[in-house]
Prior knowledge:
This protein is mainly beta. The protein is built from one helix and ten strands; from the N terminus they run βββββββαβββ.
Amino acid sequence: MSQFFPSSGCVYAPAGTGAGAYALSGLQSSVPILITGAQVMDTDLILPVVCLNGVRIVYAFGQNFGEAGVNGLALLGSGGANNAESLKSFVDGKRTSAGGTTAYLSTPLGGFKVYVTGLSLGSPDSDFQIQPFVITCKLES
């Protein structure tokens, strides 16, 4: 988890905290971005069945596409929410439906090739001039 202390118009990072533990390759924006974390979920594709006699059966069909979410904050500054357009442009360019290639998600536990599938923007915080976001992805394998 990233360590920082926001105040109106400024963000302070404690000295010696080092580089961030999370990164998404090619992530660019005209506003500074802090990646605050990522979730990765990898599951099997199954069909659980309960029979009339109480017997339970689980059919397994292989590995499902895993899910990933990259959480972050865009530091908007005085320009407000219009500054988040470059973040949306990055996602639109990397998006699988737009013919984008895979991106590489680095985490403390290893890296994953991912297909970028969407962007979710939270409500901007006008006091601290930040915009929370989540970039949604599917794992390649």
